[in-house]
From TrEMBL:
Family according to the record: Belongs to the ROK (NagC/XylR) family.
UniProt protein name: ROK family protein
InterPro entries xrefs: ATPase_NBD (IPR043129), ROK (IPR000600), ROK_cs (IPR049874)
Domain of life: Bacteria
Species of origin: Streptomyces xanthii
Taxonomic placement: Bacteria, Bacillati, Actinomycetota, Actinomycetes, Kitasatosporales
Length: 320
């Protein structure tokens, strides 16, 4: 009988995934529903409840001690609310209280999806064994989270480490967040593609204009494609170096769809990092691809809930 289980939720604009996870990070049961992202808030909540109900129908549910939620943000960990940009029906939505009441009062821990990925990478992935780390998701947006002093550092609202909205170009393009020259405005997948197109790159016969297509073109030597990835790498390097200088991280882990470009991204990133991380205490900063894959959100949400339990003297994550 598995006694130290948590129910994990990974909530995004496309899908709501759920799992029962043990204290070694093993997923024992899964459930999933599409996110009705354009519907009203209660309809979206209904999909969350359907995932929880499917998990609760298992005999394993009796071992669940808490619920961990990693959600697209912004999130407010203190208020227990979420306002995902890509789920317009949820604005200040009281997700924690709604989930808690649905699961009979179990404790609920809420973090942003970047923080959840960070928890997963520190527990099971590339940041394992590092006491001070920045973990990033570079995809449609750019998010992240921090490990400081060996502990997940979500910050008061659950958004600490949101590197995508560090400004690295003071006179740069206006970002949807309201600032200029944000890392996300340069290094996210859509913005990599946008820059490549504006510089003359053209999609192939299939019409694929994604960052993945730009990466393929860069591997084949297309100058505009290479230049767009180099610019993205420079923005990421500036943001990573600023973070490392501020809090002395020793590794930056990068996941998300853009990281799948491999050396098209990582080679210029490591070169650019040498130009930005120049002080003696950040010169040995390591950069690595994430390794927890598509389960990072679930494993990280579980890790956040287990760490919450550890603070209360209950379950705690174990090494694999």
């Amino acid at each position: 009988m598995h006694m130290d289980l948590v129910a994990a939720l990974d909530i995004g604009g496309t899908k709501i995934a759920g799992a029962l996870v043990d204290d070694r990070g093993r997923i024992l049961l899964r459930a999933q529903r599409p996110t009705p992202a354009q519907e009203d808030g209660d309809t979206v909540m209904g999909a969350v409840e359907a995932v929880l109900d499917e998990l609760a129908a298992s005999p394993l549910w009796s071992g669940a001690r808490a619920v961990g939620i990693g959600s697209a943000g912004p999130v407010d960990r203190l208020g227990g609310t979420v306002s995902p940009v890509n789920v317009p029906g949820w604005r200040g939505f009281p997700l924690v209280s709604r989930v808690r009441s649905h699961v009979g009062g179990l404790p609920v821990e809420l973090v942003g999806d970047g923080v959840a990925m960070t928890a997963a990478e520190h527990w099971q992935g590339a940041a394992r064994g590092h006491d001070n780390a920045l973990c990033m998701v570079v995809s449609t947006g750019v998010g992240g989270g921090l490990i400081l002093g060996g502990q997940l550092h979500p910050g008061p609202t659950g958004n600490a480490g949101h590197i995508g909205h560090i400004s690295v170009d003071l006179d740069g393009d206006l970002c949807p967040c309201g600032a200029r020259g944000c890392v996300e405005r340069i290094a996210s997948g859509p913005n990599i593609a946008r820059r490549a197109l504006s510089d003359g790159w053209r999609p192939g016969p299939d019409g694929d204009a994604s960052a993945a297509a730009v990466a393929r073109a860069a591997r084949a030597g297309d100058r505009a494609a290479v230049a767009s990835f180099e610019r993205a790498a420079q923005a990421l390097a500036a943001g990573i170096a600023a973070t490392a200088t501020l809090v002395e991280i020793d590794i930056a882990v990068i996941g998300g769809g853009v990281a799948k470009a491999g050396e098209v991204l990582f080679a210029p990133l490591r070169r650019a990092l040498r130009d930005y991380a120049t002080l003696s205490f950040v010169q040995r900063l390591e950069v690595a691809p994430a390794s927890t894959g598509t389960d990072a959100g679930l494993v990280g949400a579980a890790a956040a809930a287990l760490r919450m339990g550890a603070r209360a003297g209950e379950a705690h994550p174990q090494a694999v």
